[in-house]
Hints:
Helix content: under 10%
CATH class: Mainly Beta
Strand order of the largest sheet: 1-2-9-6-7
Radius of gyration: 11 Å
Largest sheet: 5 strands, antiparallel
Oligomer: single chain
Structural class: mainly beta
Number of helices: 0
CATH architecture: Beta Barrel
Order of helices and strands: EEEEEEEEEEE
Strand content: over 45%
Number of strands: 11
Amino acid sequence: MTVQDVFVIRGRGAVATGQVEYGELRVGEEVTINDGRRVKVDAIEAFRKKLDKAVPGETVGLLFKKLSKDDIAAGDVLTTSGYFLA
């Protein structure tokens, strides 16, 4: 997915928001940021509801405990297992 916005929840981590266009993503899977750094997805939420997975068409927030706001930015592309999510 292409990251639309990034914000930080103090004590939890960085959240990247965007719409999933292709593929499927589950909590605990790793994503690659711009074909570089790999990081685990710690939570997925949509409209304040926790999800186990994100599927095409959903606008979601992905929580990354190990990232700061400087590690990811709007416009970055997230992929998983070689597939483009957005």
